[in-house]
Structure formats: structure tokens, C-alpha cells
Write a structure and sequence with these properties.
Elements lengths: L3 H5 L17 E3 L20 E2 L8 H11 L5 E7 L10 E8 L6 H17 L10 E10 L2 E9 L7 E2 L8 H12 L5 E8 L5 E7 L3 H6 L1 H9 L10 E7 L5 E8 L4 E6 L13 H4 L9
Parallel strand pairs: 4-5, 9-10
Antiparallel strand pairs: 1-12, 2-7, 3-4, 5-6, 8-9, 10-11, 11-12
């Protein structure tokens, strides 16, 4: 459940790729392939190790358990079909329906769909990703508004990535550790949740009293709170949003490491000073293990 603070505060909403953009926000648009580091072997791996799952289940087989684990998120329904541009062709394509209560939660809802898609992509019938989930559409319904949508491709990512065991801890334990790591940055966690459809992915909203100072260390704060000392992501994904004392967005970064999809948003007034750059997360932690 989202906190009353998130439901009532006014925030400029920023989302990834082709979508309506609220005035006052500079969007750094991206697609999954722009957040991958291609190697001769052709596969990226973000986690330190990987143990590809055994073949046997189809993407459709994974939907009931995935939906059950997604309870409490904005994800409402999942179905599997064929790509909208190539109906009747063989690659599996997911259609993930989300329902966010307000525009302020739209980006969060879409990120949750990215995490769900990662679980579906990871557990399909073959180690060859092209035989599993090729991509997905996010279909969003709004209260008293028309539906909107996004289309995503699944990146060339190693299946069965094993992230740290931190994602299995309680929400409170994860939050307390993140708060401790963010303390040197003078950032206060004001909203927090964990999506647990896979190995756990935190969504964190932090508040600052100094937009410029916080923007200068936005990237550094994410790396301190959500990455290991060696630079590996601790979780299968994250949503990290920085707002000021008025609830207005400063910066937002989100990633889904099982799909290779991520996005970065920066408010215009801090764009020239922030340490976050387009593609920096998660690009700089991507590596091709199989190429080594």
C-alpha cells in the first residue's frame, strides 16, 4: 500500500520512452537496448553469478504464480500472446495490465510491470531468450482517464541471475539498511515498498532539503544504497525517486536487471549539476560474463 504522502503530494510524473510528459520535467528517454553493453557473446549479466533455470515451463505457465506474488502492486492482469506488430508469429509477448491510482504513481506502476516481465523472461522454457519472452506491452488504466500503454523489448540478458540474499529479508530490514547507507547524503526515506515477484526489488522515495546538493550526488547515493562495494546490484531491480521538501521531483532512476530495461529522469533546474548521466545506470554495471 502506498503511503498517504505519495497519494496526496503533487509531483511531475516522468516515464520512459513514448508517453505524455508533464510540463516542467526534462525526460531522458531510453529503451532497453540503450542500457545494455553488447559483447561478442551477445549476453549481459548484472549479478555476480547466474544459474539458468531448467527448461519445462512456458511463459503462460508462470503467470498464475507471478500474479499471486504481485499482489499489493499495481499489476492487475497478465496474458501471453504474439507481438502486436507480428500477430501469429512465434515469439512470446506479454500484455501486462496495471492500474495506478494517480499520475504520481504512473512511473512506479510501469516499473513494477518491468519487474514482472523480468520474472516471466527468466523462467521460460529455453536458455535461448529469443524462444521465451521477446517483449511486452504495459497497458495502464487510470481512474476517470483513458488507458495508455508502453511497449518494451526484453534485452539480451543472461537468464537465472543470482542477486544477493538481501532481497529475501523483510521490508523493514531492507529499509533500515538503505536508510543507514543514505544518512551521509542527508536524504530521508519518505516512501518505501518491496516488489517480491522474483528475488525482491525495492522502491524508494527520498526527500532532500537542498535540490542542487542532492542532485550532485544522486548517482552516488544510488550506488551506496543499492549496489555492492564491488559495483554489483544488490537487487533484481530498483525504483529510486528524489523529491524536494515540496514533493517536486528532482531526479528518478529505475532499473529491471532481468529485462535490461531502465530509465533516468532529471528536472531541468538540476540537469547541469547532477552526477547522473543517461545510460550510466545500469550500463556501467553490465558485463558479459560469458565473454570472459
Amino acid at each position: 500500500m502506498r503511503s498517504p504522502e505519495r497519494r496526496t503530494r503533487t509531483i511531475a510524473t516522468v516515464v520512459v520512452v513514448a508517453c505524455p510528459i508533464t510540463a516542467g520535467v526534462a525526460i531522458v528517454q531510453s529503451r532497453g537496448e540503450e542500457h545494455r553493453t553488447s559483447a561478442p557473446a551477445g549476453l549481459d549479466q548484472y549479478a555476480p553469478t547466474a544459474s539458468p533455470p531448467l527448461a519445462g515451463q512456458t511463459v503462460a505457465d508462470l503467470i498464475p504464480a507471478t500474479l499471486k506474488k504481485a499482489q499489493g502492486s499495481f499489476v492487475r492482469a497478465i496474458r501471453v500472446g504474439t507481438p502486436p506488430s507480428r500477430p501469429g508469429t512465434s515469439p512470446a509477448w506479454a500484455y501486462i495490465s496495471v492500474a495506478s491510482p494517480s499520475a504520481a504513481d504512473e512511473a512506479l506502476a510501469w516499473w513494477q510491470a518491468d519487474i514482472v516481465a523480468g520474472v516471466l523472461a527468466d523462467g521460460g522454457p529455453s536458455q535461448n531468450q529469443s524462444n521465451n519472452l521477446a517483449g511486452y506491452n504495459i497497458i495502464e488504466t487510470h481512474p476517470n482517464r483513458t488507458s495508455s500503454g508502453q511497449q518494451r523489448g526484453v534485452g539480451a540478458v543472461v537468464r537465472g541471475q543470482v542477486f544477493s540474499s538481501k532481497g529475501a529479508r523483510s521490508d523493514l530490514e531492507i529499509r533500515l539498511e538503505i536508510e543507514q547507507k543514505l544518512a551521509p547524503f542527508d536524504l530521508r526515506v519518505v516512501d518505501f515498498s518491496v516488489v517480491r515477484v522474483g528475488s525482491g526489488a525495492p522502491a524508494v522515495t527520498v526527500r532532500t532539503g537542498d535540490r542542487v546538493a542532492a542532485a550532485k550526488r544522486f548517482n552516488a547515493a544510488i550506488r551506496a544504497a543499492l549496489f555492492s562495494e564491488s559495483g554489483d546490484p544488490l537487487y533484481e531491480g530498483y525504483f529510486f525517486e528524489l523529491v524536494d521538501s515540496h514533493g517536486s521531483m528532482v531526479s528518478m532512476n529505475h532499473a529491471s536487471f532481468r529485462t535490461g530495461v531502465g530509465g533516468l529522469s532529471i528536472a531541468p533546474d538540476v540537469e547541469s549539476v547532477t552526477d547522473a548521466t543517461h545510460g550510466d545506470l545500469p550500463r556501467r554495471v553490465a558485463r558479459s560474463r560469458s565473454a570472459r
